[in-house]
Amino acid sequence: MQDPLLSVVIPAYDEEAVIPLMAARLRLVLDALSVSYEVLVVDDGSSDGTPVILQRERRTWPELRVVRLRANAGHQAALSAGLVRARGAWIATIDADLQDPPETIAEMLDVAREEQVDVVYGVRSDRSTDSRFKRLTAGAYYRLMRRLAGDHVPSEAGDFRLMSRATVDAVNQLPEHNRVFRLVVPALGFPGAQVTYRRQERAAGDTKYPLSRMVRLTVDSLTGFSVAPLRMATWFGLGGALTTLILLGGALAAWITGHTVPGWTSTFVAVAAVGALQLLCLGMLGEYVGRLYTQMQGRPSYHIASDSLDTNGSNRHDPEQGPPGQNEPGHGARKRSGADGSGAAAPETARGRDADTPGTGTPGAGIPGTETPGAGTLRIEWLNQQDDAP
User: N or C: which end of the chain has fewer CB within 10 A?
Assistant: First the structure.
């Protein structure tokens, strides 16, 4: 199967209300490009009707491909899974809620070709549809990231972007698990350009990015791309030590002159302040130690449950999943496509074994020096005969 020119990666979690709207709108845009493409929707362990709706869309949209994770792994992990399995020369990432207009993908592709850049960032020029709290917190986040990580981080650029194959390959080779793509991609230093757009309201459904996830994203961004928190802890420690020396000098002077007045309040405040400072520093250090611990464990950040492309005869190995076949449905069994394209695993039998297994398939197959011309054709004919048997 020839790889497409364009892959569109869409992470989705409990998006049954918006999937039909997204599919109808995105298909019009991509069909008008007159290029080969695939739409790779990563179902991030949805618990609603999202998997059923996606399979229904696949029946009328052959370019739609569904990768389902075994459990909810998070937005950034779902993006990682999609980027690993995307096959296009250009890969676009966009959310399923239609707040980022799919029509901008065509403009991104034109800009990438004309300016010969590897990355085209989608930058929100108008966020009037977001709440005031969302605009304030997002603005503070990007200002902080640009100050700590560098000016190369585009302001107001989320996860809506177009990347070349070279960029995606570089991202997939990174060893870290807790990736924040809005910081990872600019940090690679590939030539880039920007396309501005007006952020729209969510087409349907509820937001899947509450305040708790935004806080988690900020923490991952800080600990993953800056040592400033560690340096801040150091400066706090130095400041606390200097303050302690000053207070000690004052206490000695008061003791020498006989003006010491015992006070419970001052003692309590001093002890509480030092304790709070210690806890803050330990918390910052704990964030980094936790990331080191997670990295040393080497656990995958997601597990693939199924990929609709694999059921059509292709098996693209995912390096995040270890050796081929691990963490896939029916490991140790040959996957076969059902009527709904779900890719259910069928038990391995003599009919389903590979032809190069000694003692099965074409005589002599798998034995060095005994390859038979046309063995693949003979095996296919033999399989067909077996399928036709009552």
Answer: C
